[in-house]
Amino acid sequence: MISVENITKAYPDGDGLFYALAGVSFKIEKGEYVAIMGPSGSGKSTLMHILGALDTPTSGKYFLDDRDLSLFSDDELAEIRRDKIGFVFQAFNLLPRTTVLRNAMLPLIYSNTSPEERERLARQSLLSAGLDEDHFDHLSNQLSGGQIQRVAIARALVNSPSIILADEPTGNLDTKTGEIVLDTFERLNKEEGRTIIMITHEITVAEHADRIISIRDGKIESDNKNYKKIKS
Fold it and tell me: Under a CB-based contact definition with an 8 Å cutoff, are residues 114 and 86 in contact?
């Protein structure tokens, strides 16, 4: 599904260049649950932006479903983000005075989907994300942190993307609520076969994934492909 080949990302730094990514390579297969872990400044956020087609590498190749994204226009990359990738962010990014159901429907607004189908898909994704139907008509600012993040997960699922890209999804949650959200990702992976890529700086969060890619100073430090089996 994903193949990253020796990608770099350089930024001007005085008279030279600073490499946020310095030759990163790996593959992620369909249905994997992968955590990309690293400290602040390691390059993981830069890598997340490239994997999410929000940015392009300075050099190297990024293939998604055997397609070289470096050959895509900005409009084509926008279509990739819309159709292939569901984003879940630390800050939730929901509209606060809008109902849960309408928040989940937002990615479908610019599609050719009928209003009735939008609502059906939004309800389906909310249930898949583990939110109780009694909350569908609540405003997002009337929910707990964990419930809000589940709405954000549902919004990411509504277009049936092949990849869920989660950026520090528990960063604004307490430990107990964070565990509930991580259990949601695990269920989506194990029961629905969703490909999950989670960006985090916490080992306790990364340990929920089946594979941990550690990045430091813009380079892959380690890649434990069977982390849970090794740990057990």
Answer: no
Strand ranges in 176-229 using DSSP code E only, listed in sequence order: 195-200, 211-216, 219-224
Which residue segments constitute the domains of the chain, with CATH numbers given? 31-53+82-231 (3.40.50.300)
CA 215 to chain centre: 17
Q: What is the pTM of this model?
A: 0.88
Residue 101 sits at the vertex; the CA angle it makes with 95 and 105, to the nearest 5 degrees, is 75
CA dist 185 and 110 (Å) reads 26
What is the C-alpha separation between 65 and 5, in angstroms, rounded? Answer: 14
Q: What are the pLDDT digits (tens) for 17-41?
A: 999 999 999 999 999 999 999 999 9
Q: Round to whole Å and give the CA distance between 38 and 194.
A: 23
Do 99 and 131 contact (CB within 8 A), yes or no?
no
Q: How far apart are CA 172 and CA 147, in angstroms?
A: 12
Q: How many CA atoms lie within 13 A of 166 on its CB side?
A: 34
